[in-house]
Amino acid sequence: MYTDLISFQDLTAEEVMDLLSFADELKRLQRHHRPFQPLLGQTIAMIFEKPSLRTRVTFEVGIMQLGGHAVMLETRLGERESVSDVARNLDRWVDGIVARTFSHDVLTEMAACADIPVINALSDRLHPCQILADAQALREHKGELSNLKLAFVGDGNNVCASWFEFAAHVPISVTLICPPGYEVEPEIRSFAEQHAGGRVQVTHDLEEGLKDADAVYTDVWTSMGQEKEKAKREKAFAPYQVNARVMALAKKDAVFMHCLPAKRGLEVTDDVLDGPQSIVLDQAENRLHAQKAVMVRLMERGKDGMCVKRRARMSNKS
Ligand code: CP
Question: Do 178 and 154 touch, CB atoms closer than 8 A?
Answer without folding.
Answer: yes
